[in-house]
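Researcher: Next entry: histidine kinase (Flavobacterium hydrocarbonoxydans).
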Amino acid sequence: MSISKTLFLLFFIIQLQGSNVFCQQKKMTKEELAKQAEEAIIDGNKGLYEKSLVKSRILLNNAIANKDDYYTAKAYNNIASVFFEMNDIDNALLFFEKALSFAQKTNRNDIKNSIHNNLGNLYYFNKGAYKKGISHYLKSISYIDKKDTHEIALTKINIIWAYFASGEYDQGFPYLSYVNQYYKPEKKDKTNTIVVYTLNGMYYTHNKDFEKAEDYFKKAIELGIKEDEKLDLRFAYQEYIQFFCQTDNYKKAYETLRLYNNVVDQLNQIEKEKTVNLAGMNLHVDEYKRQIDKIGTEYKMKQQLLEMEQSRNKRVVSLMLLIFIIVFILLYFYYQNNKLKQENKLNDIQRKIQLNMINASIDGQESERKKIATFLHDNISAMLSSAGLHLNAFLKHNEIQSEEIIKTKEILKTAHDKVRDLSHELLPTLLVRFGLLYAIEDLCEKNSNSLIHFEFSSNIPIKKRYTEKFEIRIYFILSELFNNIIKHSQADKAIIILNETDGKLNISIRDNGKGFDTSKFNITEGFGLNRIRARIKKLKGTFSIKSKPDEGTVTKIKIPFPNK
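Model: Predicted structure:
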């Protein structure tokens, strides 16, 4: 019987016996899982791949049964490592990724470090994906204990390799500086010292420092021959050949190439022996993979059945809880609804009281304005005018030019002008005599200056009159809005438009000022608009403001005409 058939039969018997034994035994303890994992790793390191795979499968089965994510990840990681050593890269990548998915569920950094390092090796050495390899190496370092400088140095060597292979020497140099310090002098392991010497040779060759580069290559080759490290020696010869090519020393390059080929031949012979030993295993790798997948599938099915059972058991409790929650929510909303109604009623009463107070205040102010304006105009202003006339008549008849009399005359004139202005401000004469439209036109002219211009437009005949009370209220509403524009808008132009439609007076005021965000500003509270809103509401009108930052503001008012 051939060696391959014998190995296959042996592997099949071991698999069968392992399955039977496992089915009969109870779940492994943590200690037993740890021992099984250690034995699987040792067998893999010795090249006993069949034994390692069998032990890893048993470990996987028990770890999944115990719901132990750490040892599940460890089992998948070892299985992937064996496939990696067998040069089955696709299966190795598949199981490394499975291992990582379970490792992420744990708080164990050692397994995360190992898996990321293995993935880095796979992507760099086997797939030539330098960026992905470096990414996994960096993640690996993040999980290494900072005190474990040896492990950090090993991973940084791989990072240097990947950076140099992709031509990014400057990116790799900081890591090279670290490992130079770590492996200086040769007191660490000789194998990695060979690699470090070779990497230094590569770096100085790239920087055209050929003297240093050659010195490092010679040290690497000398130590490689001494320690009989063929893999690292092959790497050193390969880069040394590149060095000679760059220095145009083709004779030395050819001599080194012969040495390189000798090492490669020896490594190929070792690889052939390894391939023969693995020939039997390659026949049943797919079967092993199916068994591994079956373990995961069976576990998932058991988990699904258990979850279905638990789900059924929870349904009654969930239903009762849902009914309770619904009843509670209904009662809560019923209570909140009643509470809200009561609060709304109270708020309505408060608003009405506040509105009545504002309206009473406005009515009182308008009444007082009218009384004071009338008193100032008809009495004080008249008396000051009369005093001025008498004084002028006295001066005309007596021809006395006294400084005190002249000052008195000026004081009387100033007092008369101020009383007249105050009277017009309290109740504009133009409004009383000629009506609202004349008064608004005059208001625009008075408020216009070099900083802002108020423009008035209306399709209503300018001589149109309304009730006195209506005109006074509209006038003071507009007066307050004008003040707001002047104080707050930073506009240089404002337009007021009046027209009549459907028995209503429509007022539109638009400015080109800075505007504001109405969603972030309570227009009922700002700029004294409470009084304006109250005035309009008393007139049974509507009031709206539209504004956006840097787009100005538009105010619209609609007020029905009063019954005459």
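Model: Note for the record: The longest strand covers residues 493-501.
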